[in-house]
Amino acid sequence: MGRNFSSGLLAGVVAATIWISVSLWQGLATETVGMWALVFLVATTIISTVIGGIVSRSAGSSVQAQRT
After folding, report:
1. Nearest CA to 38 among 1, 7, 5, 12?
2. For 15-40, how does the pLDDT look when each residue is reduced to its tens digit (9 = 90+)?
3. How many CB atoms lie within 10 A of CB 2?
4. CA-to-CA separations, 35 to 8, 39, 41, in angstroms, rounded
5. pLDDT confidence of 46, banded at 50, 70, 90?
6. Going along the chain, which residue ranges are E strands?
7. CA separation for the pair 42, 15 (Å, rounded)
8. What pLDDT does residue 61 have?
9. 56-67 burial by CB neighbour count: b if 16+ within 10 A, else e?
10. How distant, in Å, are the alpha carbons of 1, 16, 18 from that of 22?
11. How far apart are CA 41 and CA 17, in angstroms?
12. Which of 45 and 63 is assigned the larger pLDDT?
């Protein structure tokens, strides 16, 4: 699960960085940008970690099914 969390955290950082750069470029208030960047960071990390865990678990079970 640590590998999935690392991938999810990287995806969260990328999403937050893109959000910050586009929002500041468009001139949004910095308080709004910071709050939503944190939301993007946490949400993307959680979603990517869960999806990565599901995919790796299903890939592991399909590999075991092919071996038998």
Report:
1. 12
2. 889 989 999 999 999 888 989 889 98
3. 7
4. 19, 6, 10
5. very high
6. none
7. 10
8. 63
9. eeeeeeeeeeee
10. 32, 10, 6
11. 9
12. 45
The candidate with the shortest Cα–Cα distance to 18, out of 44, 49, 48, is 44
Six token digits for residue 10: 């990287």
Contacts of 11 (CB under 8 A, 6+ apart): 44, 45, 48
Q: Give the residue carrying structure tokens 């690392």.
A: 6
Q: Would you mind telling me the total number of residues written for the chain in this entry?
A: 68
Residue type, 10: L
Spatial CB neighbours of 12, under 8 Å, sequence gap ≥ 6: 40, 41, 42, 43, 44, 45, 48
What is the Rg, in whole angstroms, of the alpha carbon atoms belonging to the chain? 17
Residues 6+ apart with CB under 8 A from 15: 40, 41, 44
